[in-house]
Amino acid sequence: MASNITLYTEAExxxxxxxxxxxxxxxxxxxxxxxxxxxxxPPILSMDIHDRNGEIDxxxxxxxxxxxxxxxxxxGFFNNPALGxxxxxxxxxxxxxxxxxxxxxFLDNGYLTDIRTAAAxxxxxxxxxxxxxxxxxxxxxxxxARLQAQAAHxxxxxxxxxxxxxxxxxxxxxxxxLAAHFGDAVAVEIADDPRxxxxxxxxxxxxxxxxxxxxxxxxxxxGLHITAxxxxxxxxxxxxxxxxxEADVYCCDRLSQVETLGELQHLHGLTLKxxxxxxxxxxxxxSPRQDDAITIADLTGTGAQDTAIASHAFAAxxxxxxxxxxxx
Amino acid sequence: MASNITLYTEAExxxxxxxxxxxxxxxxxxxxxxxxxxxxxPPILSMDIHDRNGEIDxxxxxxxxxxxxxxxxxxGFFNNPALGxxxxxxxxxxxxxxxxxxxxxFLDNGYLTDIRTAAAxxxxxxxxxxxxxxxxxxxxxxxxARLQAQAAHxxxxxxxxxxxxxxxxxxxxxxxxLAAHFGDAVAVEIADDPRxxxxxxxxxxxxxxxxxxxxxxxxxxxGLHITAxxxxxxxxxxxxxxxxxEADVYCCDRLSQVETLGELQHLHGLTLKxxxxxxxxxxxxxSPRQDDAITIADLTGTGAQDTAIASHAFAAxxxxxxxxxxxx
Lengths: 328, 328
Description:
Number of helices of chain A: 10
Number of domains of chain A: 2
Largest interface: A-B, 53 and 53 residues
CATH architecture of the largest domain in chain A: 3-Layer(aba) Sandwich
Helix content of chain A: 25-40%
Shape of chain A: globular
Strand order of the largest sheet of chain A: 9-8-7-10-12-16-14-15
Number of strands of chain A: 17
Strand content of chain A: 25-35%
Distance between the termini of chain A: 8 Å
Order of helices and strands of chain A: EHHEEEEEHEHEHEHEEEEHEHEHEHE
Oligomer: homodimer
């Protein structure tokens, strides 16, 4: 029996999938389902292609209650910029949950991943940041620096935003973009000194590919939330081990992932103040947040989020005249 | 920078990818490369969706020297026939080897897998079957029963073909189809008794989802090649353990796979007569075949074959006016 399969481009997806509070709500619902233990989420398939300076990751998850599930293929080829091509492209294939039939191919070049990743940061801010955030600080100057700042602002309307990056031009460009995005609502400034930036902030987000600590324990202060979303692979790190140990709340997206891919891989024999808790547990129960607490969210990214945003995109595209269909 | 991505349907792929000796040559070259140890082939990503009676497997491999690599997604949803849908669908995504950019999506519904699987069987026959095969016997009545018989005949022009299946109507339909395919060249008959079928055959192919022995050691005779291609998962089995142990040559596609997915998982403490050898070693060196030997090929399917047939398909499609392209 022939079936209909539709190919959607990045430009089309950008018209229907946006970073807003509804997207954070969707991630809240997704993490709550994840915490119930019924989501199927196999280990990531990963292939390093050393002789091309490339890698490819495949993630999937089946989330009960959703109409479909996604298989996401993310290549990263780091010689591409020299060829005038992006390092990262990739796509999601979307299958009907009941039949496993291919319904759509989302040629999103990582856009859906960017949005679901930022929305998880927004969700962490919703549940773990102090109620009042006047100043937020961001480490990093890439796509996630921009999107995480936007997601956090959906939940905490800070008036001042500090950006710290290693390369001044990149930091300036990121600050300009965010100033344009926020307009008068937020004063965006470059922060040369990361320690003062953390001291001035109630909400800090690390969005870098760092392989060593960006934040030291002596910088911490009461009433501080940190979302560390850069580390998603063995060897990556943004927080000193003692930062994890001294936090009042250590929260992560998926315990089994952060132990090998997230900040928790670097705990090095230290012990957490309180038991590690998953984001899904926090959204399903009274928040552990107190306004003078130090809280951490350690995010590595989950296949459940991919399936959630793909299901959302598919539903949002249904009544649009978008896409290129083939009958197969 | 925008890139061009083309979607090809099963019908289009069937016009350019065929089971012929050139396809067996391609698999020979692929297995030779695999034997050199330079192919990257990560473990299969697998997700069982129990509450839908479904599963999804993802395979990939990077084969040095090929222009691209495939990521294959194969769903199997076994409630589908009751809904009038096929159990198996699926697709391959084809990436440029140099840049990791998506080049094509092959909506093949498993067709490319069927062909590369049968061609590996043909390759086993080329190197391991007796030089003279008058009669071939096939266990099973599905797609692979048909294709494996055709592939074997490309290498050994048997005049008689016996088909053994559990369900008489299915066996009759399979025999009819093969009789139509071969015409006068081959007499196709139903074999009710598997033991006599093996006794009469110089080449036997098992193509079933069995979970117990179909062939017993006392049925073996000098001058017999068996290709067992049904077992590709834990618990599946087509040959009694002693069949493996008594064979003069035990050959497999990938040792690391057959130990858990193929016949070798059931060796149960018996020892092989000679060291297990991979198909890629056989094609790269003088054949161990002797006409009075008992030889076995245990095939589980490899990602390298997927990448090979996808690269072949992509090249074959380039000068055709096929496919639906989008600029992304």
